[in-house]
Amino acid sequence: MPRSAAPGLPTPHPIADRLPGVLAEDDFTRRFTQALDEVLAPVHLTLDGFVAYLDPALAPPDLLDWLAGWVALPVQEQWTVDQRRVLVAHAVELHRWRGTRHGLATHLRLLTGGQVTVADKGGTIASVQSTDPEAAPVSPHVTITVAVPDPALVDESRLRGAAAEHVPAHVPFTLRIERAVPSG
User: Which InterPro entries does the record cross-reference, listed alphabetically (predicted)?
Assistant: First the structure.
């Protein structure tokens, strides 16, 4: 149910309490202003809790997608509410590191809660001649390893989609999901 349709919301500022004495004593005026109080109560409630609407940890789930739009975070329908909260809260950091190993690892760590390592086989070559036979092209490839306590709980297709958004389109990648080794 939308917040504005919650029945019986009390108002912190009844209109009748602010009327001049002659109107406050009139029964019809009091009943009329009570109806207006019921209409205005959701507005007061929203304004009183506005700060919570802007905090990803406190915002109602239906507003998380709206907040994600504010921080230019594309939302995947399959993400849970908790994953959306974490990603929206860290969106600025994710944008700062987008296109880097660190950015990819951070994004996948936030989605899974696991340890993520990214191995990049990329490289560059330079040659004065475009047909230099000694300048063998390096074929780029990224290997992503995600270590989580229970690999069965990770949706591999969703994780693969999230990785594909961060790895350059021309670079193939391998995704490995492994059981985390307990420390100590």
Answer: Tail_protein_I, Unchr_phage_tail-like
- Residue 178 resides in a domain: yes
The pLDDT tens digits for 63-116 are: 898 999 999 888 878 788 998 999 999 999 999 998 889 999 999 999 899 999
Q: What is the DSSP letter of 43?
A: H
> Does the residue 162 lie in any domain?
yes
* Dihedral of alpha carbons 127, 130, 136, 137, sign: positive
Whether residue 113 lies inside any domain: the answer is yes
- Number of folded domains that form the chain: 3
pLDDT at 5 over 60: no
Structural domain including 29 reads 11-48
Q: For residues 126 and 76, give the distance between their C-alpha atoms in angstroms, rounded to a whole number.
A: 40
Is the domain of 104 the same as that of 151?
yes
* Inter-residue contact 16 to 34 (CB < 8 Å): yes
Q: How far is CA 34 from the centre of its chain?
A: 40
